[in-house]
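Chain A, query sequence.
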Amino acid sequence: MKFIFEVRIKEGYTAEDYAEAWVRASELIQQAPGARGTELHRKIGEPGVLIAIASWESKAARDAMEAHKDPRITEIIRSAAPFVEITPLGEFEDPEWVVMPPPQGSDRD
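Chain A, predicted structure.
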């Protein structure tokens, strides 16, 4: 599953500042059972808007990490909180299957 949220950087703080905190927290979060990685993307044309994606084996694995969160993670998040506005966009299931067009130049019979 994917947990996705938007991060809006406040005046006087930078996306790079947030990314530094994000990496420190992610390194700890990724030690939890079921963690499958994190991504942080900058919105095109709006460098102060980011989208964050955390991938998990299951919602139960993410919920278990939240229930027993390392206090260091909480402190990292707390230290960045005054400088950002975070809006959860939701929890999404991984697709059971993905439909993609064939590569360009491939033969179609």
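The mean pLDDT is 92. Residues 2 and 60 are 12 Å apart (CA to CA).
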